[in-house]
């Protein structure tokens, strides 16, 4: 089989834009039109199929919601985080499983009914791929699959894929004040999408990505089998830790290695405008932040200030720090390495790790950690994001041009995240996330807006900014972060996906790991059932 795949891979590359294996739901468009007249009988047939694949003890009636159901709309809207997609095409069914059996039955019946499947955990996908599709589809929403079992003695946790990061952090902190987990800052992000796409946060310089700290996983594959690490094998287990789960199956739960955090951590925030010398500070930050001690994380957030006042808008840069230790240790390090920032004892606040989670999520540290359990935070805005990686510090002129562009759009935000530390020590092929030792920092570009009519203008600005940055960021490939999904980088055709076509975006996200992902996908899902606009393609085997 492996020899077959190697030959198929060589053939595709040689032939260029050769069509790849197409999803087995190739008749879906025709099906869609026929469906208009046969909807209710199809609904019945799908539900009958679903029930027939469950053990009698496991039949529940509030798992499948059709568009006629009174709860359909509220469930669908509950985790749409980007309003840009709130009026997009809607799924034919929403399936809200309570256990593995429900997911198995959904996969089997979706195949039988030629329905496409999207899987949603926290709904934060930047391009809405977990809940929109141009072909008839079903959404499996995992919000019931969110139990968190923490074992402090053995330092691990099993977490359901539908849990949020907030629920995970809360559950760990309820059992220990010296354990944590290295993942993102936004508490409503789902662990299903986040960990399968990488996942970084304020302690990743010490412990690596969330995906680097997965010990085991349960996943339902294209045949409805429930696999764990042993039964899926090391290749597939490798692929779902950074290559995106959606290409390979439905991740049910993760077993995570907990990490040690000190009882006291320290934060500070120093904000400087351009007039206060922010450009010089960013210049220096670029050359030192990736070399800081693993315990020290200082990211730089660039945004417009005075956007609505009488003063001219300008750019400000906020240097936000989390240090895994006390103020005394932090000051001795930062005053030596970055004295220009002028950090003093007064700027620093000591707290527990879970309070630092609240702090970076924008809550007051006086709040109860219970706020992290709130998963219903509804977005009221549309947004577009992009990403880049930087290998060599951007020169002063480059930064000045960047700031000029930022000031044009008052809702733009750029987050510069320093690499180095543990990220530098992990091999770039250890997981599908390849951007490790050579990178100084990553950039996230973000713009948001309220009014649908502004979409073209705002996205136009984002694309101009991305073009402007080209000479200053990584090339061949121009690296991008999979979890900041960007369909501007390219998309698979439907129903045929070509390797060459998908290399456009695949190499940017995964670099040299892309080809291994393609090989794993070809074995795990040879008929490309788990297709989406940026799913890993399947090689055509003869
Ligand atoms: P969602 O449910 O939309 O899923 C995203 C993708 O994963 C989809 O393709 C989906 O089908 C697939 N998927 C989800 N669950 C799956 C499952 N169980 N099995 C198989 N496939 C599954 N990132 C970061 O690294 N650090 C950070 O600090 C942040 N912060 C942040 C804040 C905000 C406000 C947003 C909107 C996003 C971030 N992110 C981030 C990016 C985030 O990590 C990324 O969007 C994740 O994919 C979101 O995962 P969700 O489960 O929430 O999304």
TrEMBL record:
This is FAD-binding PCMH-type domain-containing protein. GO terms for molecular function: FAD binding; oxidoreductase activity. The lineage of its organism: Eukaryota, Viridiplantae, Streptophyta, Embryophyta, Tracheophyta. It comes from Gossypium mustelinum (Cotton). It comes from the Eukaryota. It is found in: Secreted, Cell wall. Transmembrane segments: none annotated. Its cofactor is FAD. It holds the Pfam family FAD_binding_4. InterPro entries: BBE, FAD-bd_PCMH, FAD-bd_PCMH-like_sf, FAD-bd_PCMH_sub1, FAD-bd_PCMH_sub2, Oxid_FAD_bind_N. Keywords: Cell wall, Disulfide bond, FAD, Flavoprotein, Glycoprotein, Nucleotide-binding, Oxidoreductase, Secreted, Signal. Its main location: secreted. Belongs to the oxygen-dependent FAD-linked oxidoreductase family. Residues 87-261 form the FAD-binding PCMH-type domain.
């Amino acid at each position: 089989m492996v020899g077959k795949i190697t030959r198929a891979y060589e053939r595709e590359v040689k032939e260029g834009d050769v069509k790849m294996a197409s999803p087995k739901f190739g008749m879906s468009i025709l099906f869609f039109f026929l469906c208009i007249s046969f909807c209710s009988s199809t609904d019945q047939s799908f539900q009958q199929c679903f029930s027939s694949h469950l053990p009698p003890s496991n039949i529940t009636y509030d798992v499948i919601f059709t568009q006629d159901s009174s709860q359909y709309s509220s469930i669908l809207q509950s985790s749409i985080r980007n309003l840009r997609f709130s009026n997009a095409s809607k799924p034919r069914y929403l399936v809200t499983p309570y256990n593995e059996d429900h997911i198995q039955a959904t996969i089997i019946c979706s195949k039988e009914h030629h329905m496409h499947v999207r899987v949603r955990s926290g709904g934060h996908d930047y391009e809405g791929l977990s809940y929109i599709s141009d072909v008839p589809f079903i959404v499996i929403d995992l919000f019931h699959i969110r139990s968190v079992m923490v074992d402090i003695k053995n330092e691990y946790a099993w977490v359901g894929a539908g849990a949020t990061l907030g629920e995970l952090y809360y559950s760990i902190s309820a059992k220990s004040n010296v354990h944590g987990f290295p993942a993102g800052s936004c508490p409503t992000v789902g662990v299903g999408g986040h960990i399968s796409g990488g996942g970084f946060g304020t302690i990743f310089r010490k412990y690596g990505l969330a995906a680097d700290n997965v010990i085991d996983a349960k996943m339902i594959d294209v045949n409805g089998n429930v696999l764990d690490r042993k039964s899926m094998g090391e290749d597939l287990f490798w692929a779902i830790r950074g290559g995106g789960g959606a290409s390979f199956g439905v991740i049910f739960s993760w077993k995570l290695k907990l990490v040690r955090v000190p009882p006291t951590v320290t934060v500070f925030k120093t904000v400087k405008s351009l007039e206060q010398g922010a450009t010089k500070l960013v210049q220096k930050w670029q050359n030192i932040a990736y070399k800081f001690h693993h315990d020290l994380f200082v990211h730089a957030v660039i945004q417009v200030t005075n956007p609505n006042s009488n003063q001219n808008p300008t750019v400000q840069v906020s240097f936000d720090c989390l240090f895994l230790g006390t103020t005394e240790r932090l000051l001795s390090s930062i005053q030596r390495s970055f004295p220009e920032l002028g950090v003093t004892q007064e700027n620093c606040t000591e707290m527990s790790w879970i309070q630092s989670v609240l702090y970076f999520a924008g809550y007051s540290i006086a709040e109860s950690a219970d706020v992290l359990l709130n998963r219903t935070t509804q977005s009221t805005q549309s947004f577009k994001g992009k990403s880049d990686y930087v290998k060599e510090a951007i020169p002063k002129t480059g930064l000045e041009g960047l700031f000029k562009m930022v000031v044009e759009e008052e809702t733009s935000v750029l987050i510069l995240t320093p690499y180095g530390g543990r990220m530098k020590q992990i091999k770039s092929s250890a997981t599908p996330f390849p951007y490790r030792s050579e990178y100084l920092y990553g950039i996230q570009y973000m713009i948001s807006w309220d009014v649908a009519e502004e979409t073209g203008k705002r996205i136009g600005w984002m694309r101009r900014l991305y073009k402007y940055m080209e000479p200053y960021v990584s090339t061949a490939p121009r690296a991008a972060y999979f979890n900041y999904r960007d369909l501007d980088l390219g998309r698979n055709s439907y129903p045929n996906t070509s390797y060459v076509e998908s290399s456009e975006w695949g190499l940017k996200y995964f670099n040299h790991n892309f080809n291994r992902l393609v090989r794993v996908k070809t074995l795990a899902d040879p008929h490309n059932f788990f297709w989406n606009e940026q799913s890993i393609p399947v090689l055509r085997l003869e």
